[in-house]
Amino acid sequence: MIKKFDKKDEESGSGSNPFQHLEKSAVLQEARIFNETPINPRRCLHILTKIIYLLNQGEHFGTTEATEAFFAMTRLFQSNDQTLRRMCYLTIKEMANISEDVIIVTSSLTKDMTGKEDVYRGPAIRALCRITDTTMLQAIERYMKQAIVDKVPSVSSSALVSSLHMVKMSYDVVKRWVNEAQEAASSDNIMVQYHALGLLYHLRKNDRLAVTKMLNKFTKSGLKSPFAYCMLIRIASKLLDETEGGHDSPLFDFIESCLRNKNEMVVYEAASAIVHMPNCTARELAPAVSVLQLFCSSPKAALRYAAVRTLNKVAMKHPSAVTACNLDLENLITDSNRSIATLAITTLLKTGSESSVDRLMKQISSFVSEISDEFKVVVVQAISALCQKYPRKHSVMMNFLSNMLRDDGGFEYKRAIVDCIISIIEENPESKETGLAHLCEFIEDCEHTVLATKILHLMGKEGPRTPQPSKYIRFIFNRVVLESEAVRAAAVSALAKFGAQNDDLLPSVLVLLQRCMMDSDDEVRDRATFYMNVLQQKQKALNAAYIFNGLSVSIPGLEKSLHQYTLEPSEKPFDMKTVPLATAPITEQKTEIAPVATSKLPEKLAPSRQDIYQEQLAAIPEFQGLGPLFKSSEPVQLTEAETEYVVRCIKHTFAGHMVFQFDCTNTLNDQLLQKVVVQMEPSEAYEVVHCVPAPSLPYSQPGSCYTLIRLPDDDPTAVSCTFSCTMKYLVRDCDPNTGEPDDDGYDDEYVLEDLEVTVADHIQKVLKPNFGAAWEEVGDEFEKEETFALASVRTLDEAVGNIINFLGMQPCERSDKVPENKNSHVLFLAGECRGSSGGPFVPLWGETPTGFKSGTPHHLTLRTEEASRMRGETSSSNLKKSRRFSFQAP
Amino acid sequence: MDQTSVRRTEITHPQYEEPSLYTVKAVFILDNDGNRLLSKYYDPELYPSMKEQKTFERNVFNKTHKADNEIAFLEGMTIVYKSSIDLFFYVVGSAQENELMLMSVLNCLFDSTSHILRKNVEQRCLLENMEGVFLVVDEIIDGGVILESDPQQVLQKVNYRADENPLTEQSVAQVLQSAKEQIKWSILK
Fold first, then answer.
1. ipTM for this prediction
2. Which intervals hold domain AP complex mu/sigma subunit (chain B) (predicted)?
């Protein structure tokens, strides 16, 4: 039938694709023979194939022409040719979205689905469900129920899978088929078993009790399908995770027993589930690791890949557990599949000793150009982790990275390298100059604006403090001459920092800035003019405030405040202090070292946690007029994890008030709670102003209630306070199955744990990139020095950690990391205090004396900026406050 | 108190996707220039437009056609593949998916196709029996759910027979014909 094309194709010599030069209009023209009598099955079949092929190639069909072809196709149901009928089903599915009135084939399909020909029944069900909508579903419900329990496996499977697809559309109808699905689950056919399990879980997944029962049943009875086993393992590990079940739970035993299943797929699924469990001990991991080790020598590439990828994950948390596999991993280094080789090497880098690093690095570099960008990123991340582990190896790594930087690669890859070099520079002061030199070279020819600006920013920060700052000026100024606007602007800012820090470079920097003032771009000119004027003043304080340490407000907050300001015209100038502060970025967040799904979505500036809270609180009328949200604490648990009600509290600090947000969850399915409030009894002169109740708390749906407290403004020393908390509510008993509550209810209360407000709640972290400048900016006029004893602290690390936690201030210049083998340390902290119109900025210089021992005195030097402004009084009271800091070890 | 809060945060970022039957994200067959012969995408959020799909297929092809390595990881997806003469078969799943499940789908697809093509797994034969291949894919995966993974079952359900006149006979005749021609010419010379 297609052979008539063959000759022509051979002549044209353009491959042998008979579908290559298909024209949509010609095919639709041909489709007219569908109307001929008698039907010619072979020709019609061929035309349907062409239509589906065209649709598959992405050819666009207009609604009219599609509908026309569809209606012509319906006539083909008169033929009894099997393949032709099957192709009609396919056409119906492909055209369901582009043609109109597809439901006219409903009766034909219903006939096939209930007919005698078993070959038609399954596919007919699937085609029918594809074109059925909610209103028509009721009409075929009876047939679907019968089909689910049909003894022909393909019919039952088709009905189950189609039901699963329709759950999204009409959950309520499909839910009624649960008994049929239950019956299908005990079928002898392995695929029917699998599909029934999938549908049952999907219908019950929100009912934890039902899922538990289902798991119990199937884990005991045993299933035949390996797919169903994998599904059960996933459900079990999810349930373990949610219920925080210990590893002595029967669910864990089930997963572990699957390690001895005879099917590799199930064994691997179980091993992977165990590896991914949080808080897994080395002993629990061991059996999983040993099956993965066996897989490493499998002849199947997919199995080797799966095994080494999972071992790589284990190595991130438990490197020692993987050491036993080192020999097998070594063998995989030469694997012809480069993905496997890369994963093997990066795993070895995590588990191996310092001496093997050089050899492994050499091996990676031999094939790094052959692997995909995703895996190159994995390599870079492994190197980054290695540098933290073996700081002495940084020169080898740096060399390797700089070579990789010169190779071709996409943005994600380059960004990973740049991030890695930056982190090495920050960790190892001695690598700073080589690192900066490599980066300088990179931006000479860098197509990614984001990276160029990032590197320029880093050069501005680190460059001026190197022994020879002048050599960076050339690289920076080249950018001003050669690059796009955003990069030029970043270069101008970097130049200004050199001028501000190095007096001998100032004249040349001023000349260069003068030139930038002729730039064609507004932003570049503005920046140049601004920096020029600041630098000419030659005042350290100005430099610190406007060049080194920029704005510390939250950007989305600033946007919102400015928008608000433009909406309400007023004579007053915009007050920067009404803008909430930026929350310091969490630096300790570890990046996952695994081939993670690189997001395809464009990155957008996600509002911080605090911005989200600000928005939520502003929506509550009682809390308007409190001013900008100053700080939101981490959630504090006020109940044990396994109690009837779970309550946690987030403390929101405002200028003169605090709002306590209680997130409550009701874990009793036979109760509905209403009018939930938390009553607070303060120990100090704190005044409870208002309670906003949570109107209703149904089973397992979290809700929030709030309590507003006014902070005492007459006594600034009252910074800490303990509240005893009681939750009060109206209980209405209800039916656990339907959730229908009784008409009457009764009042009840529940005692929560005490809640403490500490110093840290009044201080917001502020990151000062250049601490020295900030310190000088405040000046020694407002300095206070105190000595404290740290009672039961044993190590320097512990002392530093405790001080940071107690004060809730931001460590600057990476001074929170105590170098090894030191017995004294200087810690720089910066923060802003609550209240007093935006709050004074408080840098703190903490110094531990040499010969650190438990209980030795600890000097704290504090400077505040506030006194230089109009309210000297507040400043002194803040100083008083600071004097009350006492370091009783917790 | 501290420990519970740490555990809480871990729970809010589940490492697992919701357990579900939706295993396969996409399946496609390409020719030896990386052009699409057949392709199905089952996750509407993954490469929604035809242009994105074809770019993805092109990328996958470029990274995989040189070496028959069976498995690759690209654009955050696990891809298992297999080639035969001038055809490339691909099955795509999420990064968290069980690689062996994807393999069983790929093997089933390949074996079933090979059977209906009477072991001639090459482009021309595939295109001549395109309807059979469409039906095979439809029986193996339905909307991303593995419907069947046993080639015998698939073949039984599809019940498709390749053309009566197998291509091999025809090509033998062609070879004979051309041989005759050549001999004729050599004698005439």
1. 0.82
2. 23-161
